[in-house]
Amino acid sequence: MRPLNEAQGVLMKDWVMIHKIKALYDHGTGSSIRAIAEHLQLSRNTVRKYLRRDETAISARLGQTERAKVLDEYREYLGYLLRRYPRLSGPKALRKLREKAPGVEVSERSLRRYLRQLKQTHASAQRRYYEPVIDIVPGVQCQVDGGELRQVLIGGVEQVVYFVVFVLSYSRLLYVSASARPIDTVMLIRMHDAAFRYFGGVVQECVYDQAKLVVINEEFRELTLNQRFAEYATHAGFAVRACAGYDPESKGKVEAGVKYVKYNGLYAEEFPDWEALHVHLAHWLERQANARCHAATGEVPRAHFERAERAVLTPYLSPTLLLDPATRVTRKADKTGLIAWQGNKYSVPLNYQQSSVGVDCEDGQLRVHDLASGECIATHRLCPATGQIIKNTNHYRDYRQRIRDLEAAVAQRLGEVLGAKLCQQLKASEPKIYKDQLAGVLKLLQQYPEVPVECLASLAERPHLTATQLRDYLAAYSRCPERLHPEPSQPHAAPTLLAVYHALNQPQPGRNRP
Q1: Which of 265, 248, 255, 290 minimizes the C-alpha distance to 89?
Q2: Tens of pLDDT along 381-399?
Q3: How far apart are CA 41 and CA 35, in angstroms?
Q4: 3-class DSSP state for residue 162?
Q5: Nearest Cα to 349, choosing from 326, 382, 384, 379?
Q6: Which of 130, 196, 243, 471 is the most exposed, having the fewest neighbouring CB atoms within 10 Å of its CB?
Q7: Could you give the CA distance from residue 381 to residue 389 in angstroms, rounded to a whole number?
Q8: CB–CB of 367/376 below 8 Å?
Q9: Cα dihedral angle (442, 447, 452, 453), rounded to 10 degrees?
């Protein structure tokens, strides 16, 4: 027989003592309370307490030994989790237990009771209480707050994860965006942009605490907003509301959301890199946070949002100020084409050496932009180490010079006028692969040197001309040059290659077209 654990042993002693005392008392017809106390060497108050106890309830609790036996098999593992993660919640512990032992059959409620016993030897988290607020109007409010979690293992190194949580007050739909570095105003604006695109619209107001990223100063409840963030809010179309100082209850939904993200979404997790962390959060939002039945609303946030709130959100478009150089962090490339970012150096294209570029970081990617056009000119995966140089070898090749060389080679072969016209047609047809098209045309001109210039002149007039079309025409000429290039004694022959193809599609005299 499996030995009883400590809690079950206490219950068994109580159960034995109750039966012994009640047998002596015999419903008032046996020994008195004083006599029983003297016989068992107990106080009279203890005897009275046991007489009032219900042995049936204790028997029922002792009858639940099978459930305890199931969890006792994993007692060391659960103890390890609690020692390493003292604030581990019941649902998260159950998920990790099922990952460890997929066949375990235990309910979340049973596991919570079991963890409650184990947690008696661990420090418990300080409780926080929030005043309930009832929101009955959809599409009106989103609560926003930031948090951080330290000692998260990313790539084998303990790092700090900074994140911002967005919660729609009506449906409780949640979005979270994480960062490897402390949140600044530009990053907060981009996180808002990502959240509104995730929601598919913007609410009427967003509620914040008095963080300097949003509120510079408050006096008599009059707010001085961060100018850059206020400009974004105006363009996006939502009002900024800040709760009173030291009053987290006025945005209790997101306060609870921050705790939920921290201890359910990130706590007790390990990631190979930052990209894996972002993927984990995206999956966690869809499979756990927005797919569970919310305790306050009694509905699944995603279903509640789709049914009653999505349709009333204001349509959202990313404001043009997100592309404004004034809102972008800038770096100046050195003479070797490298910019500094978080202790490392990253390469930029050759033509941006010793020039200023825009830089932003999102989803573990460092993006470099042209300050004038806003075009993304380089992308690098963030390196978790420091003192490294991350280079893209293509950045050290000047493609513009290569294009100029190819254009010069075409002009040398066909002449300045015809070469320029042919290059112009190719560039208009395929601007994104223009360099490859030029290289292909030069190869074709070397392959078919016998093609007359007048045929190429006619082809250069053809709109949407590509290298493959040119190849097909030149191949046709090489197979039948006498039809496509007439001799002087054949005045009625087709003068050019295009004329022959054109004639093939014309009806013959005296014949009806089918």
Answers
A1: 265
A2: 888 888 899 988 777 666 6
A3: 10
A4: strand
A5: 379
A6: 130
A7: 12
A8: yes
A9: 0
Tally: H helices and E strands in the chain: 20, 15
H or E element that contains 25 = helix 6-25
CB 368 within 8 A of CB 360: no
The two structure tokens encoding residue 40 = 């068992």
CA dihedral sign, ordered 65, 69, 75, 77: negative
Specify the pTM.
0.45
Distance CA 441, CA 199 (A): 49
Q: Is the dihedral of CA 211, 214, 215, 216 positive or negative?
A: positive
- Domains annotated on the chain, with CATH: 6-121 (no CATH), 141-312 (3.30.420.10), 328-396 (2.40.50), 401-504 (no CATH)
**Alpha-carbon span 68 to 143, nearest angstrom:** 42
**What sign has the CA pseudo-torsion 199, 200, 206, 211?**
positive
Q: In this structure, what token pair is assigned to residue 301? A: 């946030």
Task: Tell me the per-residue pLDDT of 213-258, one tens digit each, with 9 for 90 and over.
Answer: 887 776 665 667 888 888 889 889 998 888 765 444 455 677 888 9
CA dist., res. 30 & res. 103, Å (int): 53
Evaluate whether 58 touches 18 at the Cβ level (below 8 Å): yes
Alpha-carbon dihedral 254, 260, 261, 264, rounded to 10 degrees? -170
Query: Pairing relation of β-strands 222-225 and 344-347?
Result: unpaired
Which residues of 335-419 form beta strands (DSSP E)? 338-341, 344-347, 356-362, 365-369, 376-381, 389-390
Buried b (16+ CB within 10 A) or exposed e, 342-381: eebbbbbbbebbeeebbbbbbbbebbbbbbeeeeebbebe
- Residue that the structure tokens 């280079």 belong to: 391
Angstrom distances, CA of residue 192 to CA of 138, 143, 169, 206, 362: 19, 11, 16, 10, 12
Tokens standing for residue 109 = 């409620």
